[in-house]
Design goal:
The chain has about 300 residues and is mostly helical. The protein is built from 10 helices and 3 strands. A hairpin with a 5-residue loop joins strand 2 and strand 3.
């Protein structure tokens, strides 16, 4: 379609044939995929991914169609829109490639990809927190001497009588620490947050290996008794929501700490710990109800999590 739009001579009949094929075959076919992949049978994770890709490809396609000249005189201006037309075409190809990739990966591959992405976000949050120095934060806000007379405990000021004769000096109180907190509170907050988030970070590869990667694989050739149940699919969806929630909460913990709100850090860490314990409890046993290495490991992990924090 993009070649027909750009290349000369301009052939409306050929373009019309492609648009007819798109509207009667391609787009309805793509929409039927989304309708077939209902959340209960194929997971909300897969259904949401398909929906997002469909929206992208239709949006890019509409953008490409919008460049088709409506009048003969408009054909002369197409050369100036060449980059826009090629960009829209590239977006369509990129989205279609992604849809093919998702089809090849299936539910398990897509879930593993998402777990790795959430894991990377938590790792980044931990590394940033470890590199953050509350002392430097305080110095950037309050510290350092300057030409204005800042020295040690405060600003020295001269007071005098109405004739301007100075007769004494006094010092203002030293500026408070970040949000009125003692600096050791920030250090304690950082230490507690890093301990909890490191344990959360540790959970991702364990769940990836022992639960996500072991989820029953199925496709159109699978026998009915080999397909996962709706309950199993619901548990997988919930597991992925938890893992996304951990990464979101890690950002909130870091933000509260950078803002000097140790009370909020404590509240969010406790909430995160409860969420993590609930997540582990839901998948403590394997997909067929048996206990395995993760079952034993998770009990020790939960105990360590309870001991961590502020």
């Amino acid at each position: 379609l993009s070649l027909l739009i750009l290349n000369k001579p301009f052939t409306p009949s050929a373009i019309a044939a492609i648009i007819k094929s798109l509207s009667s075959e391609c787009i309805p076919g793509l929409m039927s995929v989304w309708e077939t992949c209902d959340g209960r049978g194929y997971s909300n994770t897969l259904r949401s991914e398909i929906q997002m890709q469909l929206q992208d490809v239709v949006s890019a396609l509409l953008g490409l169609v919008d460049h088709i000249p409506r009048e003969a005189i408009a054909v002369q201006g197409l050369e100036g829109k060449r980059e826009e037309i090629l960009a829209a075409t590239g977006q369509i190809w990129k989205t279609c490639d992604r849809m093919n990739q998702v089809a090849q990966m299936g539910i398990v591959g897509l879930a593993v990809e998402q777990v790795d992405a959430y894991h990377a976000l938590v790792k980044d949050a931990v590394e940033e927190l470890e590199a953050w120095d509350p002392d430097e934060e305080e110095e950037s806000l309050f510290g350092g001497s300057s030409d204005s007379g800042m020295s040690g405990g405060g600003v020295k000021k001269a007071s005098g009588d109405i004739n301007g004769n100075a007769h004494q000096e006094h010092s203002d109180p030293a500026p408070p620490t970040l949000d009125g907190l003692e600096i050791h509170d920030l250090h304690a907050g950082k230490e507690g947050a890093v301990k909890v988030l490191k344990l959360i970070r540790m959970l991702y590869p364990a769940l990836r290996k022992r639960r996500v990667s072991t989820f029953p694989v199925f496709d159109r050739t699978s026998a009915l008794d080999a397909q996962p149940s709706e309950d199993q699919i619901a548990v997988l969806d919930q597991l992925l929501r938890h893992l996304q929630g951990f990464s979101d909460e890690a950002d909130e913990v870091a933000g509260a700490l950078y803002g000097g709100d140790v009370r909020e850090v404590r509240r969010r860490l406790e909430s995160l710990k409860r969420m993590a314990e609930g997540c582990v409890d839901e998948v403590k046993k394997g997909w067929t109800g048996e206990e395995d290495e993760f079952s034993a490991w998770s009990g020790k992990w939960v105990q360590r999590l309870k001991e961590a924090g502020l």
